TrEMBL record, chains A, B:
<dbReference type="GO" id="GO:0005524">
    <property type="term" value="F:ATP binding"/>
</dbReference>
<dbReference type="GO" id="GO:0003941">
    <property type="term" value="F:L-serine ammonia-lyase activity"/>
</dbReference>
<dbReference type="GO" id="GO:0070179">
    <property type="term" value="P:D-serine biosynthetic process"/>
</dbReference>
<protein>
    <submittedName>
        <fullName>L-threonine ammonia-lyase</fullName>
        <ecNumber>4.3.1.19</ecNumber>
    </submittedName>
</protein>
<dbReference type="GO" id="GO:0030378">
    <property type="term" value="F:serine racemase activity"/>
</dbReference>
<dbReference type="InterPro" id="IPR000634">
    <property type="entry name" value="Ser/Thr_deHydtase_PyrdxlP-BS"/>
</dbReference>
<comment type="similarity">
    <text>Belongs to the serine/threonine dehydratase family.</text>
</comment>
<dbReference type="GO" id="GO:0000287">
    <property type="term" value="F:magnesium ion binding"/>
</dbReference>
<dbReference type="GO" id="GO:0030170">
    <property type="term" value="F:pyridoxal phosphate binding"/>
</dbReference>
<dbReference type="InterPro" id="IPR001926">
    <property type="entry name" value="TrpB-like_PALP"/>
</dbReference>
<keyword id="KW-0663">Pyridoxal phosphate</keyword>
<keyword id="KW-0460">Magnesium</keyword>
<dbReference type="InterPro" id="IPR036052">
    <property type="entry name" value="TrpB-like_PALP_sf"/>
</dbReference>
<feature type="domain" description="Tryptophan synthase beta chain-like PALP">
    <location>
        <begin position="16"/>
        <end position="308"/>
    </location>
</feature>
<keyword id="KW-0456">Lyase</keyword>
<dbReference type="Pfam" id="PF00291">
    <property type="entry name" value="PALP"/>
</dbReference>
<dbReference type="GO" id="GO:0004794">
    <property type="term" value="F:threonine deaminase activity"/>
</dbReference>
Amino acid sequence: MSSIDMIHAAADRLRGHARRTPLLNSPFLDELAGRRLFVKPECLQHTGSFKFRGAWSAVSALDEDTRTRGILAFSSGNHAQGIAMAATKHGAPSVIIMPSDAPKMKIDNTRALGAEVVLYDRGSESREQIGERLRQERGLTLIKPYDEPQVIAGQGTTGLEIAEQAAEHGVTQGDVLVCCGGGGLTSGIALALEEHAPDLRPRPCEPMGFDDVTRSLASGQIEQNPATSGNICDAILTPSPGEITFPIMYERCGPGLAVTEDEALHAMALAFSRLKIVLEPGGAVALAAALFRQDQIEGEAVIAVASGGNVDADIFRTALERFA
Amino acid sequence: MSSIDMIHAAADRLRGHARRTPLLNSPFLDELAGRRLFVKPECLQHTGSFKFRGAWSAVSALDEDTRTRGILAFSSGNHAQGIAMAATKHGAPSVIIMPSDAPKMKIDNTRALGAEVVLYDRGSESREQIGERLRQERGLTLIKPYDEPQVIAGQGTTGLEIAEQAAEHGVTQGDVLVCCGGGGLTSGIALALEEHAPDLRPRPCEPMGFDDVTRSLASGQIEQNPATSGNICDAILTPSPGEITFPIMYERCGPGLAVTEDEALHAMALAFSRLKIVLEPGGAVALAAALFRQDQIEGEAVIAVASGGNVDADIFRTALERFA
């Protein structure tokens, strides 16, 4: 269902709306990584993460009547903000169903970006039931966070930019490390690289103990995580790779890499001091893998996608205190 | 001596070497600023500040024989790192004269970028004498941090990009706020805007109590600061505007703006949470002016140049602790 043509079409729709993020590097990080290291800072994307690309792609792909009735999403995090902003900029209403115990800042931000936020109690209510009722009552269209072809196509535009920007630096071969939750970004990038930079090899990066994608790629079937909480990399803790994203990754990705929470925090501190960007823990796992899993990486250059920067100030301060 | 033609020529020499930084914005900052607010994040430039542009411009403008004999600079900060990296990438030696009490990290970074660092005692030695001796002995060429036409031309390339990027957002009129020390960046941007975006008005921004450029623009002659230390915005504490930069600014700039140390720290915290970039205090004064001097700013849009991000972790943590 997903294809390079869909990614090209998404790139056309995103032009002038999503940011073309730069490709950053630093001689200090090159030395630490033992090879040339490039970082694609999607924390600089609108709403602070790559999720805006997929959201814009999916919202802009709807016909106008459908879009005008409104968009529905379940999310407590980056997908919520991406959908809210993309819908609002299209003049369309959006309803985001969030757990009532989600961080107040994330609820406030999602509302401020123009979404109606519907809170539910995780213990006693089913978000799916609430969503289904709203969908029927208002004719809303659900946009899923990763297992959705137009979302994958939007995330894939990151891969188009990586292929171009890496070539400008003379890099056409090497590993492309991607922070991976459900696999929307990884599979989109994999499709884009297959066409435009076939010797750049995409590889998912995950928190240790939540390496469902890494294990799924190894076993050849969808594996589950034992839990979806209990790790600082909250943005990328998903139950398992998606039914659409997994086959795409299985055909195109190299082995996954897993890093510890401390390694993610350490990478955040190095991104602060050497690249002057703000990363959230889940957005720093690919950089952490580039720095701390050198022996598992091949090639003279490596590219790490820094997927997001929506981190609370106290966690960021902790990272600096311990590792800067 | 400085001209738009020199800026265009510098842009040609910088292409593929300096980064074209993006133009960032956030609906949250627009609301705080009371108008559309755009930020040009030169903290994302090589070596963490715009200084790399001027350094590259000046080093690349030398004939090869001169360059090969080596470059000399006096600096304890961002100019040192810019010169070191630009010289090293040209295969040329560089000697940076730094006070022996400069922060160890800055000395280490400058060395790691390939420069020879010569330390002097601020109390008992004259850096000018040491520099003059080295210049004669080794045939080094001194590159001054701001009062130097090719440096101004390099900084002016920031203005070329602002003119283009602002137009992409439909902005051709409004104030362009620039963090200002000796005026190299401000005067370069002023020359570029005069040619390419004549209704964008450059305005220097300074720390309160160190507003020599603001006072000089008001009086029509070069005014001095009473001191060059004692403020958190260390990167932009200079004794007075330059003899070359002042006339350029006097003819082209709107009135200066001054902000407090707390306002600079507050702007750093907002840049962290809303733009995901790391600013140093001196690099945040223009953003602070956009946010906290709204009544002194004209137009429906404002552009703030965030000039650098070389900040110690403890100062950054303080900014987050107090304002995030």
